[in-house]
């Protein structure tokens, strides 16, 4: 008939987290009730694709062999927004038209002007992310001519980096 807020208490029972809610006492035989519950569960990052709740109706009155029990599986969906920021140092580079690369040289300056490209991958949340793969394609050839000589790749913050086969081919 009317709506009432339930008083629920979390506790541990046999190593399992249990939430007990008192629905009413005494309750007349044949009484029908509907309960809507909203649960807030944290720490689901490593729970997989779903979480299962075991719901059971128990009576404190005379023992009943038909204590109704049901399993409810709820899908877990993580939400996180990723942002990629990039910078080049120096931001602008001008190579003189009279400059020519020195074949076979081991000196950096004989291969062009050094430009460092820095990329930062940020998680703007709200969820935690893991197993992220960032693929970065860098044009290193213009026709048959070297456009960018890829010298090295590096990472910070516990990331792994797989190197491209065209990385530092002259071993400068």
Quick gist of this model?
By secondary structure, this protein is mostly beta strands. It has 2 domains: 7-75, no CATH class; 78-171, no CATH class. The protein contains no helices and 8 strands.
Structure description:
By secondary structure, the protein is an all-beta fold. It has two domains: 7-75, no CATH class; 78-171, no CATH class. 0% of the residues lie in helices and 31% in strands. It has no helices and eight strands. The strands form four sheets. It has a two-stranded antiparallel sheet. A two-stranded antiparallel sheet has the order 3-4. It is rod-shaped, with a radius of gyration of 31 Å. It starts with 6 loop residues before the first strand and ends in a 26-residue tail after the last strand.
């Amino acid at each position: 008939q009317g709506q009432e807020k339930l008083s629920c208490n979390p506790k541990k029972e046999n190593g399992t987290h249990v939430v007990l809610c008192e629905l009413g006492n005494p309750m007349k035989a044949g009484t029908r009730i509907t309960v809507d519950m909203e649960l807030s569960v944290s720490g689901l990052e490593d729970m997989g694709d779903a979480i299962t709740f075991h719901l059971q109706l128990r009576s404190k009155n005379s023992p009943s062999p038909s204590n109704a029990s049901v399993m409810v599986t709820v899908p877990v969906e993580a939400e996180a927004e990723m942002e990629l920021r990039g910078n080049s140092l120096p931001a602008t580079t001008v190579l003189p038209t009279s400059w020519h690369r020195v074949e076979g040289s081991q000196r950096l300056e004989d291969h062009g002007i050094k430009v460092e490209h820095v990329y930062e991958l940020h998680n703007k949340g709200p969820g935690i992310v893991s197993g992220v793969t960032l693929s970065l394609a860098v044009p290193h050839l213009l026709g048959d001519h070297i456009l960018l000589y890829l010298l090295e790749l590096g990472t910070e913050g516990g990331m792994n980096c797989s190197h491209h086969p065209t990385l530092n081919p002259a071993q400068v």
